[in-house]
Amino acid sequence: MVEIKSIEKPDDRRDFPRGHLEVVNLTGLVFGKATFEPGWRWTESVKDLTGTDLCEVHHNGYCVEGRMRVMTRDGSESEVGPGDVFVLEPGHDAWVVGDEPCVMFDFAGGIGDYAKAR
């Protein structure tokens, strides 16, 4: 089997303040491309859509451009930048660092539920 789709023609697009998510669904893979503008922060831009205090989505990601700071439920912080591959457990806040957009690819199945109104 070969299945090919372009992220340029996503199956779903979700817009939220200062950003958007494009999602492609393939057999066995949900792939997302997220673009976050300067000033974006999860607790300010997405929290009200989800009804949770922190992001409760698991992320397997790759940062294409820009920088993002992440704070987990226990208060620890890390920063992700271009070329970084990361795993991020549910229960976190995140925000764009600097004055350029942050673009990330996410290939965890949970990204299919990201920024969906509950």
UniProtKB/TrEMBL annotation:
It holds the Pfam family Cupin_2. Residues 59-106 form the Cupin type-2 domain. CDD domains: cupin_DUF861 (cd06990). InterPro entries: Cupin_2, RmlC-like_jellyroll, RmlC_Cupin_sf. This is Cupin domain-containing protein.
